[in-house]
Structure formats: C-alpha cells, structure tokens
Specification:
- The protein has 9 helices and 7 strands.
- It is an alpha/beta fold.
- It has a 5-stranded parallel sheet, sandwiched between helices.
C-alpha cells in the first residue's frame, strides 16, 4: 500500500473538589490520527485505494464511534468531496452535490432521512459519474428503509465494514483519547482499563470522559487507584 505524508499509525496485531468544566473537545480527524488495526484495516484500505474503486459508490458500515466519520473526512479531503448528514438531504441542492464529483452522506440510520432525496442523489451521482460514500451503523439490509427501490440500490453497493475493536485497538484508543485530553497516564492504567471496559468504541470513549471528569473534580492525577475508586473496582476485580 502506498504511503503519504500523514499516513495513520499502524498497530501491532483529602481532596479539594473542583468544578469540572464541561468542555467539548474538538475531534481530530487528520489522517495521522487514524489508528489502523485488524478491525478496520479493510475499511481503511478501501478509502486508501480511491480513486481506484471497482464501483464509484461505497457503503461504509460500523458501530457508533468506530471511526466512520474519521474515515469519511479523510476521503473527503482527498477527493474534494462535499459532506452532509443524511437528515440534511431534504434541504440540499442535490444537482449541485452530484456536480461536485464526490459526496459523503453520513449516518443514514438516524431519524429524519429523506428517502426520496437519497434515491434521487444516488441516481444523479450515477448519471454524472460522481463518487458517493454513504455511512451507517448497520448494513443496508439491516436498516429500516421503506422505499424498495432505494433499499435495492443500497444493497447493491459494495459494502465495507468496521468490526468491533480488537485488543490492540482498544489499548491504542485509550492512549489516543487520553492524549487528546492532554492527560498523562502510565501503561499500567491503560492495561487495567482494557481488561475491565466494554469491548466497544463508545465504551472506551465514555470511560475516558468519566475518568477525566472525576480526576478534575477531585483535583487528583489520573491513576489506577483513582480509577478503581471512581469505578468501584476492588484491587482483585
């Protein structure tokens, strides 16, 4: 696989309580911030292979917080694509989107999808030979799509799936999310959390957010003893 600048990292298979500020951290969607492991290697390879796609339309499926938006952002940057949420299709200028030559439509499983608009966009993209990347948390056959023709089109699209994270990716996600929050943690804490956290992207993110909030509120450095205290885990757990 060719390498570019910014190619993502590849993983080997008496407390004074403070008022925590509810700061919304801006996610980092640079290519160098994407972590490639066995669970998402096929999806990344598909994005990396553009524009040499067998089909100009690809469906990217994966669970919540799995990196679909990150991959879509990487692809949009490379392809000069226009990006929008599926719920915004009803108000979009569809001919202008198709004329752009590359389009990302994200989260088609969420309420508010205008099925007629999506079907029309797919037809326009096909007519104008535009590239189209659609993302969702499930495969098209598992979505609640009421329009038979739209469902048929989605099912015929080549699909690439992001699987549940493997152990290497779980560990790397913890490290990345802590670093994103400018938190210094040791490997013992990361190993400890990896053994006790739900095996999903969303669970890792929720755990990091909770520990960060509690460490700030308690005015203490984030550590394994603090994590055990906050989460009610005994040393034997």
């Amino acid at each position: 696989m060719r390498r570019r600048a910014g190619t993502p990292a590849r993983l080997p298979m008496a407390d004074t309580r403070q008022l925590p500020l509810d700061l919304t951290l801006e996610p980092r969607f640079g290519e160098e911030d994407f972590l490639v492991s066995q669970s998402n290697a096929e999806a990344y390879a598909t994005i990396d292979a553009w524009p040499d796609w067998a089909s100009r339309m690809v469906f990217l499926a994966g669970p919540v917080a799995s990196g679909k938006t990150h991959l879509a952002t990487i692809w949009a940057s490379r392809a000069g694509a226009r990006s929008l949420s599926a719920r915004g299709l009803g108000q979009a200028d569809l001919p202008a989107l198709a004329a752009a030559g590359a389009v990302v439509v994200e989260d088609i499983e969420r309420p508010g999808l205008d099925e007629a608009a999506l079907f029309h966009l797919i037809n326009l993209a096909q007519e104008r030979q535009a590239f189209l990347l659609i993302t969702g948390d499930r495969a098209p056959s598992e979505l609640r799509i009421a329009t038979p023709d739209l469902l048929s089109r989605l099912r015929r699209m080549p699909m690439v799936r992001i699987a549940a994270p493997d152990d290497a990716l779980i560990k790397a996600l913890f490290v990345k999310l802590f670093v994103d929050r400018q938190l210094v943690v040791d490997t013992a804490l990361v190993d400890y959390l990896c053994l006790r956290t739900g095996r999903s992207f969303a669970a890792v993110r929720a755990m990091v957010e909770r520990l960060d909030r509690e460490a700030l509120a308690r005015g203490r450095r984030l550590s394994r003893p603090l994590a055990a205290e906050v989460l009610g885990w005994t040393s034997e757990t």
